[in-house]
Amino acid sequence: MRLLSFAALLLTTACAPQQVSVTTPTTPPENGQVNGPSTPAPTSANTVDPVPARVAESDTTARPPWLKARIAEVLAERKRNPITRILRYDYEGRKVYYISAPCCDQYSNVYDTQGKLICQPDGGITGKGDGKCPDFDKRKTNEKLVWQDPR
């Protein structure tokens, strides 16, 4: 019985609500400083650039029917994160369309102007795509933004 009383006493004192008083000063200190000298100014420039380093020029040419259909498919799905972007490049002497991957570890696709899949230059478990165009990033030129999901 004595042990039970001790356990009950221990629980009630350990779990009892505590009274805490918090005060917030409403007027600044006379010298204008809270704790010692003010924080020094930063010594280096911001390393986070909130704006992309490059913005693709817009593609104003007509879109092939297969690409219009692909855009309609993307818009019929729920919004992706990251959003879908379609870019046009010159690669290996021809125009190609790059469609960004819907999400993590999925492949991005590169199509010719007829809508035939050429390769998947990035994504997958390794991030290096399907290996059919390992030089895509180095050899693509004339980037043009064709479309990006506006949602």
Give the helix proportion (percent range).
10-25%
Give the uncertain stretches in residue-range form.
none
> What proportion of the residues form beta strands (DSSP E)?
15-25%
Tertiary shape: elongated
Q: Give the count of helical stretches.
A: 3
Structural class, by secondary structure, is: alpha+beta
In the sheet with the most strands, the strands line up as 1-6-2-3-4-5
Mind explaining what this structure looks like?
There is one protein chain. A six-stranded mixed β-sheet has the order 1-6-2-3-4-5, with no helix packed on it. The longest helix is centred in the first third of the chain and has 14 residues, at 2-15. With 151 residues, the protein is of the alpha+beta class. The chain has helices at residues 2-15, 65-76, 136-139; strands spanning 57-58, 85-91, 94-99, 109-112, 117-119, 141-148.
